[in-house]
């Protein structure tokens, strides 16, 4: 039993090894026959494991120097030392965007501008339907005429009331003069009666004559009292119910004049207030008519229209204006790049669209906090050159020069073989002949390309003479 168990175990192990070996040779055959040289170069470790010469096609990796064209020569790459450029994804935004909205709600009657149009400060942008406001203004003008007429009428009534008061005052003054005159006449008659009474007692005057002078005195007294009574009757009309009995008659008279004309005065002042209210309403109506027209607050370019003719306005902005047609780019940086960010430092903006001119700008603003969503710090740069063709919302790359240096390996663009689909490669000079090697590149200038990987600074490559 023990030998049988060992036999079964060995049989299972042999079968597993044969199966693994079969799968390896099958994968090696497929990789060696169909893997391109670019794939083999990019994954050298996998090539060492799977590439078997017995399965590979006839290799063209090495050629003899006799295959060189007489127009070909060898040269070393050009090595330059340049500052390292940081690259950040960026988006174009207006430097100053103004959101314009109507001060009142209404129906849009006419739009005088279009999106993308350049406008000047004070230019008419939009008109609302102001028919109801205009009719209300005409009604207020009619009300103003009526209020002015009422103002004239109440003023005349007040003046008439003051004249009536003055008439009564003159009557009181006249009664007062008559009282003074009657008082003097009474005093004179009383004094004369006293003298006549002495003569009558001494027998020089008869009783009938004395009675005559006595009757004269009583008549004067009666006249005096009647005048005083008539004046008191008039003065009762000017009673002001003053709590200060020591007030003079002149002060009583002044208060009485005010109280007897206060109603007419209040009506006049009320008409003045009513006229003032209507004038203020007319000013408000004029302001509403002015607000029915929307003007550009600043010079710039219209970015977006959010309304159409015939629509009702609301509290949302009707349009947005890019002030002075100035644009900026915003992007986020990490904490490690923060020391390289200095305000007024020059930047380059490369639009995502090809064949576009590189825009130049300066760093303008740096946020003082780390955005928890992007885990970066927002930076804003204002573009100053070559930005006329850019529009808000465009994407691109911002490049910022750093203080650190880096060597770059440059080769002539015409020395490259291959294309972007299959890969670019060079023919290198080695001890065993000419070697075909794939490299990764990116454009550097019109005539040169920068080698990212695949070529050392001391490796020679073939260059065809131009």
From TrEMBL:
Q: Which InterPro entries is this protein grouped with?
A: MdtA-like_BSH
Q: Which residues form the Multidrug resistance protein MdtA-like barrel-sandwich hybrid domain?
A: 100-314
This protein's GO CC annotations = efflux pump complex
Q: Which GO terms describe its molecular function?
A: efflux transmembrane transporter activity
Pfam families attached here?
Answer: BSH_RND
Full protein name:
Biotin/lipoyl-binding protein
Give the organism, scientific name: Leptospira kemamanensis
């Amino acid at each position: 039993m023990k030998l049988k168990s060992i036999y079964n175990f060995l049989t299972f192990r042999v079968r597993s090894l044969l199966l693994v070996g079969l799968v390896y040779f099958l994968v090696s055959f497929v990789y060696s026959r169909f893997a391109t040289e670019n794939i083999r170069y990019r994954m050298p470790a996998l090539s060492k494991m799977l590439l078997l010469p017995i399965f590979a096609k006839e290799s063209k990796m090495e050629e003899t120097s006799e295959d060189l064209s007489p127009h070909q020569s060898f040269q070393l790459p050009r090595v330059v030392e340049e500052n390292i450029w940081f690259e950040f994804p960026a988006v174009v935004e207006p430097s100053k965007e103004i959101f314009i909205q109507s001060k009142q709600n209404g129906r849009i009657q006419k739009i005088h501008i279009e999106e993308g149009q350049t406008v000047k400060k004070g230019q008419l942008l939009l008109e609302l339907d102001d028919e109801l406001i205009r009719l209300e203004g005409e009604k207020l003008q009619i009300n103003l005429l009526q209020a002015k007429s009422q103002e004239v009428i109440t003023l005349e009534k007040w003046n008439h009331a003051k004249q009536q008061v003055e008439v009564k005052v003159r009557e009181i003054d006249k009664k007062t003069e008559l009282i003074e005159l009657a008082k003097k006449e009474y005093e004179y008659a009383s004094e004369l009666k006293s003298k006549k009474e002495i003569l009558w007692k001494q027998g020089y005057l008869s009783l009938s004559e004395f009675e005559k002078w006595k009757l004269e005195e009583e008549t004067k007294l009666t006249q005096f009292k009647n005048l005083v009574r008539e004046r008191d009757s008039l003065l009762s009309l000017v009673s002001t119910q003053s709590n200060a009995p020591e007030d003079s008659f002149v002060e009583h008279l002044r208060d009485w004049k005010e109280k007897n004309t206060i109603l007419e005065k209040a009506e006049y002042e009320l008409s003045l207030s009513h006229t003032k209210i209507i004038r203020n309403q007319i000013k408000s109506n004029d302001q509403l008519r002015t607000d029915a027209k929307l003007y550009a607050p600043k010079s710039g370019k219209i970015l977006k229209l959010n309304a159409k003719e015939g629509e009702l306005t609301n509290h949302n902005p009707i349009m947005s204006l890019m002030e002075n047609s100035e644009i900026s780019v915003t992007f986020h940086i990490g904490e490690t790049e923060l020391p390289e960010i200095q305000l007024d430092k020059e930047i380059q903006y490369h639009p995502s669209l090809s064949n576009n001119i590189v825009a130049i700008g300066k760093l303008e603003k740096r946020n003082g906090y780390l955005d928890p969503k992007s885990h970066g710090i927002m930076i804003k740069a204002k573009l100053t050159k070559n930005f006329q063709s850019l529009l808000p919302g465009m994407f691109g790359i911002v490049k910022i020069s750093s203080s650190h240096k880096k060597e770059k390996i440059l080769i002539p663009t015409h020395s490259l073989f291959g294309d972007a689909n299959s890969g670019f490669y060079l023919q290198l000079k080695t001890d065993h002949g000419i070697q075909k090697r794939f490299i990764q590149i990116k454009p550097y200038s019109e005539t040169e390309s920068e080698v990212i990987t695949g070529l050392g600074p001391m490796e020679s490559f073939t260059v065809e003479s131009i």
